[in-house]
Design goal:
The complex is a heterodimer of chains A (about 110) and B (about 110).
Chain A: E1 4-7, E2 10-14, E3 19-25, E4 30-38, E5 44-51, E6 56-59, E7 62-67, E8 72-77, E9 86-94, E10 102-104, E11 108-113
Parallel strand pairs in A: 2-11
Antiparallel strand pairs in A: 1-3, 3-8, 4-5, 4-9, 6-7, 7-8, 9-10, 9-11
Chain B: E1 5-7, E2 10-13, E3 19-24, E4 31-37, E5 44-50, E6 53-57, E7 64-68, E8 74-78, E9 87-94, E10 103-104, E11 108-112
The chains are: A mainly beta (about 110), B mainly beta (about 110).
Chain lengths: ~110, ~110
């Protein structure tokens, strides 16, 4: 059974700082990995999708890396802003068969202080 | 760009009542997923449909059922509601055949009193 762990559970940084969020998964047989952002009580916004054959993806100030063999992914946020404050969720999709569900980690609650 | 639409956005029910949640996927997306997110929890997969057939089943209670219709919209039917069913219910869609990025709707917040 796939298990996804995110470290740290919470992170508080001053505005402008670069930061890294970590995600690890137990089963390396994944199809892809998605990073999401969730504001309190709101929906999930997809930030980046990394296919299993890729090493990294970039979107603006965000960069996500994937090391499938070691079961790890990181989300790098450059020059953080107060508007980046949210919960960041990592989710993996296992490969094989018709099982395309996402397994989520419990998220990292990020607070960027002005 | 069109997004996943869910209705209603908020729903308040009494214990033992029934509820129906609706999901309209992004046009041409052929796979729909339902997830449940309890307070302070990560989203948990309930059930998915590909081309109107159930493709996978997760931790969905027997009191819940779902289907995907010919126009690809999906409905989650919940009966004999319990207090513990209070949660955010997300629908997501993807294309093709579920291998691609999943896009989530805004969710339906169900409160059971």
């Amino acid at each position: 059974k796939q298990e996804v762990t995110q470290i740290p559970a919470a992170l508080s940084v001053p505005e402008g700082e670069n930061l890294v969020l970590n995600c690890s998964f137990t089963d390396s047989a994944i199809y892809n990995l998605q990073w999401f952002r969730q504001d309190p009580g709101k929906g999930l916004t997809s930030l980046l999708l990394i296919q299993s054959s890729q090493r990294e993806q970039t979107s603006g100030r965000l960069n996500a890396s994937l090391d499938k063999s070691s079961g790890r992914s990181t989300l790098y946020i450059a020059a953080s802003q107060p508007g980046d404050s949210a919960t960041y969720l990592c989710a993996v999709k296992n490969s094989g068969g018709s099982n395309y569900k996402l397994t989520f980690g419990k998220g990292t609650l990020l607070t960027v202080n002005p | 760009a069109a997004g996943v639409i869910q209705s209603p956005r908020h729903l308040i029910k009494e214990k033992r009542e029934t509820a129906t949640l609706k999901c309209y996927p992004i046009p041409r997306h052929d796979t729909v997923y339902w997830y449940q997110q309890g307070p302070g929890q990560d989203p948990q997969f309930l059930i998915s449909f590909y081309e109107k057939m159930q493709s996978d089943k997760g931790s969905i209670p027997d009191r819940f059922s779902a289907q995907q219709f010919s126009d690809y919209h999906s409905e989650l039917n919940m009966s004999s509601l319990e207090l513990g069913d209070s949660a955010l219910y997300f629908c997501a869609s993807s294309f093709p055949q579920g291998r691609d990025e999943q896009f989530f709707g805004p969710g339906t917040r169900l409160t059971v009193l």
